[in-house]
Amino acid sequence: MRKPFIAGNWKLHNTVRESLELIEALKTSVKDVTDREIVVAPVFTALASVSRALQGSNISLAAQNCYPAQTGAFTGEVSPSLLKDAGCDYVIVGHSERRQLLGETDPFINAKIRALAGEGLGAIFCIGETLDERETDQTLDVLHTQVTAGLKEVPAEAMARIVVAYEPIWAIGTGRTASEDQAEDAHAFIRGLLQGLFGLSVAQEVRIIYGGSVKPDNVDGLMAQEDIDGCLVGGASLKAADFSRIVQFA
């Protein structure tokens, strides 16, 4: 049985003070949840403060990005080792906003995943198709390319710390959500790709989560699907009541 994984990506929101206020509200509202993993991903400047606030709680910490080198002349970048030192357990990689707005490629994302694996950190590995790719029946080809290139030369033992996040780009921040059947079909296809790359046992253990306008009123149906193991939540994770309801899906 795969333990459900619910993560909140705060994106470019919240000062340190606002982050701590949100954390205190979440710690109270989800303190009794023990059968699912809860993760929040604040901005870099709030990581250390949020890490201290999360001590002793049932909420883990993620960063929103990293650079695939531990040290060096890389002005403005943050390494996996520094994120681990700040208290992170996971790092989001390959998010569509970084692919589209900042030109990140599959090989670059793969380098990040391998760097995180080398540091013993978990990766929340994002993949997904654009609206044009969906409408021209390229979804499965896109997912195949992103999964195989993104996980190239990643050792099978590292997959225990990797969560794959299927985020159809046309559903992120648009209010549109993939139907339950659309999401389940994509997740089942991704699990088949993982089986081809790493074998049946690894594919059955890896958690594949859905992202794309997840809200309190659609999470129950999504989580009822066989191959959907959790959610990567954007805007709704900025409101304690909404994120708590998503965490406590029926």
TrEMBL record:
It catalyses: D-glyceraldehyde 3-phosphate = dihydroxyacetone phosphate. Substrate binds at N9, W10, K11, G173, S213, G234, G235. It is found in: Cytoplasm. Its main location: cytoplasm. Pfam families: TIM (PF00121). InterPro entries: Aldolase_TIM, TIM_sf, TrioseP_Isoase_bac/euk, Triosephosphate_isomerase, Triosephosphate_isomerase_AS. GO terms for biological process: gluconeogenesis; glyceraldehyde-3-phosphate biosynthetic process; glycerol catabolic process; glycolytic process. This is Triosephosphate isomerase.
